[in-house]
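Hey all, sorry for the wall of text incoming. These are the two entities for the joint prediction.
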Amino acid sequence: MTEQRQQSQSVQTVYVVDDDASARDSLCWLLGTEKLRTRAFASAAEFLEQWSGDWSGCVTLDIRMPDMSGLQVQQELLRRGNRMPIIVLTGHADVPIAIRAMKLGAYDFLEKPYSDSELLDAVGNALARERELDLAELERREAMRALENLTEREREVMCLVVDGLTNKAVAVELGISEKTVEVHRSRVMQKTGAASFSALVQLCLALRQGD
Amino acid sequence: MTRLTPRRIESGPAAASARPGVVGWLRLLALIGLALYRAPAIADDSELTLGVLAFRGEQAALQRWSATADYLSRNLDGYRFRLVPLSLDGMREAVAADRLDFVLTNTGNYVILEDAYGISRLATLQATYGGDTYTQFGAVIFTRRERAELNSLQDLKGHSMMAVSINAFGGYQMAWRELRAAGVDPQKDLKELRFSGFPQDDIVHAVLSAEVDAGTVRSGTLERMAAEGIIDIGQIKVLGARSEDRFPFLHSTRLYPEWPFAKARRTPADLAQKVAIALLQMQPGSEPAVRAFAAGWTIPLDYSPVHDLFRELGIGPYAGLDKPSLASVWREYREWIIFSLALMLLLIGLTIYILRANRRISLSEGRYRDEVERRRLAQESLAAHKQTLEVRVRERTAELAEANRSLRRSEAMLRSIHDITTDSEDDLAVKLLALLRQGREFFSMEFAVIRTLEPSRSELDLECELNNGAARAVVDAMLDWLQDGFDAGSDHLIVTDFADSDEYSAAPRAGSMIASPFRVRDEVAGYLVFGASRHAPRAYSDVDIDILMLLTQWIGEEVERRETDRRAQEHQAQLAHVARLNTMGEMATGIAHELNQPLTAILNYSNGSLRLMQKHGVIDPELREAIEKVGQDARRAAEIIRRLRDFIKRDRLREESFSLRECIESAVELLQPRLSRHNIAVSLDIDNMAGEVKADRIQIEQVVVNLLLNAIDALHASGQAEKSITVRIFAGAADNLVVEIGSSAPVIDPDIVDNLFDPFFTTKGDGLGLGLSISRSIIESHAGEIGYLENARGQPAFRFILPRK
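and here's what came out:
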């Protein structure tokens, strides 16, 4: 009953990975009281098997599981390019393990039994963080789409302009007239929908970050 | 048989000349002639003539003494000893003619020759009988047991007796003396005195076969014959038996010294000294000794009892002192007297001639007198030499005796060192005190002290008989000097008197010590000191120093061994302690984990319920309070678990740099008894690049021990014949070290591989199921990893990875 199917990719889900049924079920139920979508996995293997890069939300990961430790799952997710924040849950707070989990990019680290508010805050923050990351990703994708419409020459002109060259310098660099540069530049502004030159620079930076 | 008087002497010129009462002229002539005639007797300087008495024939004498002659030739460079067997008469002749350099003859003959020709003894034979040695002997007078009427020497009057010969010292003369003392004159009072010659066994047989009533033989003869089974000694009755002499053989006479080895008067003193030394050094059991029926030679004994015998009997040198009656002389020596009278007439004629020649002679007489004077001086000098030789022999004998005593003491000391050190006593201090006591006595010192330098060994600061202030002051001063003395690397120090030395001018008073340091792991760890608050009581030899060094060496090694043992024990105890803590910790962690899951669920549900109540506006204070209490109790339970775990896991990791290789070797050594019992071979395959890690050594060793124990159990359970464990250490990715422990056991069932590291998971009947779980906790607390795999050879293996840090 706690396991709810996700409707669309844009809706965030909390992926609960824990080998202990009562801990797993109760956590899903608690998250459910806050109207959060959850999806539960009884083992690391099951979770990794079904994992998809399209998933959105966050992961709560029990550190001590029979088949694979939470740390190993973290490593595997890192390798696959997972973007979801991971909250590591542990039965005992070993400092060295916490440090290693953090080094592997864990978003938060909670000791069982946690208080409801502690957990819900951590999950809330994780989801917000993921949304921020998602938003940046969305912007990046829109910019990509806009840039895809540019011609080869328009893209060359844009790169040089963004690098800070004057129209004249761009003309010399590309062996064309300064007038032609101006035409290309206005087309670039038009096609990308950038309101200003600085907006264009931001667009290019977003694109490069995504590379 | 013939009855003979004791004074009868065999014919021959030498016998005649020795006889008193013969014309003085003849003696003078003989003396002069001898003096004139004395040419150098030794043709070849390197050949020395040794005359031996051949009382049982030349062959027997050669057989008995040729090894002794060879022995002397071997031991005296540049000399060769030629053996000349001689009869009693031949001996006398040869000595008189100065043909011998050395003389080996029986006791009685020696005394006669000593008196007549100035031969002098160098050594006395040590005879052997049945493994014991004797330098004296006597004679036994005996009859058959059944002769009830014969019970004392007096009883022999009117009975027959058999002896060797009238000249036999042991074979007759000894018995003669005792019989005479008992009032029995053998010549007059016996029914018959019969001389059988050698061997003496004939006399024993004659007595036992009742051929004669009694006999006398040299002491030991009866025992030898009984031992050879020739006679039954029970059939013998000894007459006039003596027992006061601590002499084991039946004897009826006083005891006299054994055969002497003597030198001729002219034999140089230094040569004689060399011979004496060689004889004294003859080893018992060596060929010359065995062939001579002897154990060797000893310093010459006192032969005056022999003189007493001769004097009492009026024979030998004392012959004629008790004058016989004229009638008996006429009866005995009639032919001689007639012959002598004729000779006297001849001599009177000669005298006239001589008187004429007297003038000529008086001319040369001055020269003779000078010559005689020179000879007298030479003889005095010889006597002095003889004196010196005797003093030297005595000194050397004393030295030998002292060396012997010292050796015996050293041997006793070594035995007590052995006894003390191998004693089952476990307390080192008790053993050391015993050694101090023994050593103090051995070195003849007042007190003994052990002082250690390390405060940790202060329980070994021991002392023996150090109970007065003066001694304490000496010891304190000593220890300061010791420190200086031994820093220079010396291994022992002997100070006979501090007061004698400038170096020790700070000495409070007179004092002496013999000391040596003991070393533990090549470091001076302390000193063993034997000392006295006075001048050293004795000189210390190399042997003494060796014993001192032996003591300090043992002390050092024993301290080192015990400390090593103690460290190994401490290490094991530490490992066991850590194992216990780890087990408790792991149990607590396991329980915490198991309990935390339901507690987490309880809290999730109770807190979630409160949220929902809030959200749905359900206001039921009782219900709300109850749910809140559920949550509070769950948190309390969680808190209890956390405290329990914190209490047990209080110990932080004690990180140090150490060699992983040594750590693994130490674990293998710890388990060696078990490995051997199960006949499991362990091979180490260690990459030289492996090097050191920074971690808690005991904890890592615990992991290795756990993994090895699992491998041993798996191999044992498999029941297979070939059992081996391979430990590999190699450098891993990044800056990691990898340890892999594989075994030839079957691989682990894939169904349980996932659960291997779970707490309380076990496949062993008697296991707690925490070993791997603990190992994982330890490795993870070192930021490492541990896991199971099948290695390159398809064998089951556990591998852990540690960052070097």
